[in-house]
Amino acid sequence: MTPVTVFAGQKVALFGLGGSGLATASALKAGGAEVVAWDDNADSVARAQDSGIGTQDLREADWSGFKALVLSPGVPLTHPEPHWTVRLAREAGIEIIGDIELFCRERRARAPEAPFVAITGTNGKSTTTALIAHVLAQAGRDVQMGGNIGTAILSLEPPDAGRVHVIEMSSFQIDLTPGLDPTVGVLMNITPDHLDRHGTMEQYAAIKERLISGAGLAVVGIDDGPSRAIAERRTGDLVRVHVPSSEVLCTDALTVREGIVRDPDGTALADVNGIGSLRGAHNWQNAAVAVAVARALGLTGEAIQAGLSSFPGLPHRMEEVGRRGAVLFVNDSKATNADSTEKALTAFRDIHWILGGKAKEGGIFPLVPYFQRVAHAYLIGAASDAFAATLEGVVSYTRCETLEVAVPKAAENAAASGAPEPVVLLSPACASYDQFRNFEIRGDRFRELVQALP
């Protein structure tokens, strides 16, 4: 835990008592603050009370005594409308912050030179966060990884000059961190997302930009327009990362072509070819960003390459879960929309594609250009009719309804295909809710079925 001492002796309101909220309340209490916490969920309030955290319905509280409102990132700050606690805090004239802001203040007070890497982006930020943490840890660094990737930041060990915090940040978390000042700030990419919470694309991009505005070094992917514009506005130290989709190259960026990460002068820095967990152009960008961050923190080229080569990947994100003869089995259950599945379809050929579930708007129509990579499709779940209509006459398919039917059938057909490395790919392009509570359970079931194959 990181005790938060910057509010010692002061009274703080806290709303949102999920995992990060409980961790925040405990950290504030350990640092000497008086915490008054609440949640709209009675079970969450009960858990807080069992942990010794003071609770009160904040509608009935005297807000003049609070120094700040610490808000869970899942609670609306601006759109579609401010949460009632936000209105009360603004009426009382107190600041509204999140747990990562508390960490930043504690770091400035305790160990301002402590290395702090913050990563954001619409896509790829979890893999990049895990990859950076892995490369640093393999090189012997004391690494604490958390934030949006799973572990609440204040549950981690405190900042220290010999310890690196590698923190994934969502736009919601950035919005609650006005004092964000990482040693290295990473912006992967920006595409439309969470507009129901931010109002407009311009506002969403502006929030993402704040992560690098206060960073000592900014590492920015420049393969989309909004990120490229942000890089052009950056006045401090900057590393651009570019994965060219054509022969047009950016001459002042770290580039990745044919799996080789190169300096702007053409010097090869790392090779990601043959690393199963880093297949595809999107993972080349992840690797290039990790190279840039690791170099900034003083790692040698040899240490960086060793870390990349040993990266196991993240569960449910193009995760290689097994082989049967020449057949490779890949769990990409995290791909809950067409945009995510596109990454997997571009990374493989001779694909036996298991897809379906609760469809998102647009279905799989955006994936038509990649159908030539698909040997056969296996349809499961509620989207079967709609997806069959898109595949009809272009890709052969089998209606399987469930994973239990699809996995052995796909395995049998892939093994009989004669292709040098056929792939059985679970990349559903759908939410899981028709058959599974979440994508993790869906991916775990796929892994179990693969392991049970003869």
Keywords:
single chain; 454 residues; alpha/beta; Rossmann fold; UDP-N-acetylmuramoyl-L-alanine:D-glutamate ligase; Protein-Tyrosine Phosphatase, Chain A; 3 domains; nine-stranded mixed sheet; six-stranded mixed sheet; 15 helices; 21 strands; 35% helix
Describe the structure.
The chain is of the alpha/beta class and 454 residues long. The protein has 3 domains: 11-97, Rossmann fold, CATH 3.40.50; 110-309, UDP-N-acetylmuramoyl-L-alanine:D-glutamate ligase (3-Layer(aba) Sandwich), CATH 3.40.1190; 319-451, Mur ligase, C-terminal domain (Protein-Tyrosine Phosphatase, Chain A), CATH 3.90.190.20. It has 15 helices and 21 strands. A 9-stranded mixed beta sheet has the order 6-7-5-8-9-10-11-12-13, sandwiched between helices. The longest helix has 16 residues, at 281-296. The two termini are 46 Å apart.
Topology:
Blueprint: E1 11-15, H1 19-30, E2 34-38, H2 42-50, E3 68-71, H3 84-92, E4 95-97, H4 99-110, E5 116-120, H5 125-138, E6 142-147, E7 163-168, H6 171-175, E8 184-187, H7 195-198, H8 201-213, E9 217-221, H9 225-233, E10 237-242, E11 253-257, E12 260-262, E13 268-271, H10 281-296, H11 301-309, E14 319-324, E15 327-331, H12 338-347, E16 351-355, E17 358-359, E18 374-380, H13 384-391, E19 397-401, H14 403-416, E20 423-426, E21 430-431, H15 439-451
Parallel strand pairs: 1-2, 1-3, 3-4, 5-7, 5-8, 6-7, 8-9, 9-10, 10-11, 15-20, 16-18, 16-20, 18-19
Antiparallel strand pairs: 11-12, 12-13, 14-15, 17-21
Helix pairs in contact: 5-10, 5-11, 14-15
